[in-house]
Write a structure and sequence with these properties.
Blueprint (H helix, E strand, L loop, with lengths): L7 E7 L3 E7 L6 E8 L3 H15 L1 E8 L10 H17 L3 E5 L3 H12 L10 H16 L17
Parallel strand pairs: 1-4, 4-5
Antiparallel strand pairs: 1-2, 2-3
Length: about 160
């Protein structure tokens, strides 16, 4: 059974200098890197992100936040993510979800280093980190279906 109203999601991987953005496909199941914005101020960042959300038709914004094992913010950067989410809610009028992004930047950098081409050497992996963050969120919202299993031996049908 499919979701009657699929939603496009926009993810933000906030950093000290750059914000990586990723977007889902129209079904809200697959993430892809979108672009990188340079950090200005939280208000300016929120306005720019809200504009991108309108451009791509996002219905939900997912903001990455680093957390500890208890789900609590771990750093100044995590507190900044919470503040950015607050500004985004106000500016965009969209639901904003905080999602654990621990490890996505390191994973994106590792993949980026292995797949980088010369022409992309000056680009940043921040949008790829946002895509990893968003895919993690989407997977949690839409777990993969159970594989088809054969009926048990004692099933009443053939």
């Amino acid at each position: 059974m499919s979701d009657p109203s699929p939603t496009r999601y926009l993810a933000v991987d906030p950093g000290e200098k750059y914000l990586g953005l990723a977007v889902s496909d129209p079904t809200g199941r697959l993430a892809r890197p979108l672009r990188v914005l340079r950090h200005r101020s939280q208000r300016e960042d929120a306005a720019a992100i809200a504009q991108v959300a309108r451009e791509v038709g996002a219905g939900v914004i997912v903001v990455g936040v680093a957390t500890d094992v208890d789900g609590q913010p771990t750093t100044l950067q995590a507190r900044r993510a919470h503040n950015l989410a607050r500004h985004l809610r106000r500016v965009s009028g969209l639901p904003v979800v905080l999602w654990d992004e621990t490890g996505t930047t390191q994973a994106a950098r590792a993949v980026w280093a292995q797949t980088r081409r010369r022409r992309r050497a000056q680009e940043r992996p921040d949008a790829a980190a946002a895509a990893l963050l968003l895919q993690s969120y989407l997977n949690a919202q839409h777990p993969p279906p159970e594989p088809d299993l054969p009926p048990p031996e004692d099933a009443p049908w053939p």
